[in-house]
């Protein structure tokens, strides 16, 4: 049986990048497979996890195995971006989830092979989304008790 952590098609100079991202993709695959948001009363985000996040991370794992590291990183970025945007839409600005976009911007700098226009476009998308969420997504679609912050659940 083939392991998710084999790197036959990975060049030796990309081995460390592969190891780091492969573990992150695997954690994302398993973490999004759990139904945490279903128990929090947000079935839309739980459904997004099952139908979008899990397949995206599975694709990223396989692309990384095939040596397509930049494409795998882009797939993971798109998944995380869509997931965060949807979560901010449903939970609102007060949930604090939008601050994970800052973390998402940092992921772009794992791609060290070359400076690409893709990195700057993704940073622009994050910045515009942050402003959009602040202006238009103050109130989420779900209503939680006063003082409820999703970020506190994980810390």
Report on this model:
By secondary structure, this protein is mainly α. The protein is 65% helix and 0% strand. Helix 1 (15-33) packs antiparallel against helix 3 (43-65) and helix 5 packs antiparallel against helix 6 (117-136). It starts with 14 loop residues before the first helix and ends with a helix. The relative contact order is 0.13.
What would you call the quaternary organization? single chain
State Rg.
17 Å
Number of helices: 7
Task: Give the overall average pLDDT.
Answer: 80
- Beta content: under 5%
Unreliably modeled segments: none
Reading the helices and strands in chain order gives HHHHHHH
Shape: flat
> How many E-type strands?
0
From the N-terminal CA to the C-terminal CA, the straight-line distance is 37 Å
In brief:
With 155 residues, this protein is mainly α. 65% of the residues lie in helices and 0% in strands. Helix 1 runs antiparallel to helix 3 and helix 3 packs antiparallel against helix 4.
Keywords:
single chain, 155 residues, mainly alpha, 7 helices, 65% helix, flat
Itemize the secondary structure elements and their pairings.
Blueprint: H1 15-33, H2 36-39, H3 43-65, H4 69-91, H5 100-107, H6 117-136, H7 150-153
């Amino acid at each position: 049986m083939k392991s998710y952590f084999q790197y036959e098609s990975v060049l030796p100079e990309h081995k460390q990048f592969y190891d780091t991202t492969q573990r992150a993709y695997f954690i994302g695959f398993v973490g999004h497979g759990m139904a945490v948001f279903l128990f929090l009363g947000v079935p839309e985000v739980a459904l997004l996890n099952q139908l979008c996040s899990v397949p995206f991370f599975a694709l990223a794992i396989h692309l990384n195995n095939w040596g397509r590291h930049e494409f795998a990183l882009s797939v993971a970025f798109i998944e995380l971006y869509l997931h965060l945007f949807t979560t901010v839409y449903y939970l609102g600005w007060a949930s604090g989830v939008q601050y994970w976009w800052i973390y998402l911007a940092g992921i772009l700098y794992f791609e060290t092979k070359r400076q690409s226009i893709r990195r700057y476009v993704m940073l622009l998308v994050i910045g515009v989304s942050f402003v959009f969420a602040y202006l238009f997504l103050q109130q989420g679609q779900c209503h939680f008790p006063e003082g409820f912050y999703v970020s506190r659940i994980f810390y």
